[in-house]
Amino acid sequence: MGLFSTRSFALFLGITLATAAPAPAAIAAQVLSGAPAAANARVADFGYSGSGCPQGSAESGFDTAINADRGYFHDLTAFMTPNASQADRSNNCQMHISVTCDPGWEFTLKPHSTKLTAHVNLGDGATAVYLTSYYFSEAATQTATVRYSFDGPLNDCPTIADPAPNIDYPRSGGGGGLLVVNRRVALTGDSRSAVGSIQLWGDADDGNGKNANFVPWRAFEWSRC
């Protein structure tokens, strides 16, 4: 496999469609799949932004396997060569997931519930970093961070558990909240000589090239409060 591969990843929250397919950057209130029926959980809104997923970059499509609409993006990639710009070495995608539920319920992230696959191709002296931060806008100081680092030389497709274990994830509080998920991939090393790339390209569970786990809707864990 060369420095890059052309794959796709998918963003979605796992909602059961109640209306026609929405615009990818704003989703009307719809039932959230996988939540307890008693929680009456709904996606009130969904937005995305960032160098890795600028506005208008999503393509929506209905997935019959989960009875839900997904927004697809080409990939989330960072690369480094002697001629690459600083912007090429780091890309991010920040998602705003507004979820409402009955006041007696709250949600958080369940560790080891979803996985992603990356293609990491690094020369000597290059390091690739994968970062995800989770927080609720109502309590932004309570942030959980998942971090993976890979050192060259390396050409591999590692599995990334995210949400990762052994991390204390924030809770929404009763009635839901606005969860902010910011994923970033970056390359570091001597810009005069080090070369490499990192690309998220699929779900680790089935190995396909569309990443349904990029938005961690299957990782939501519900409890009464």
From TrEMBL:
InterPro entries, per database record: DUF4360 (IPR025649)
Signal peptide: 1-20
Parts forming coiled coils: none
Annotated keywords: Signal
Protein name: Secreted protein
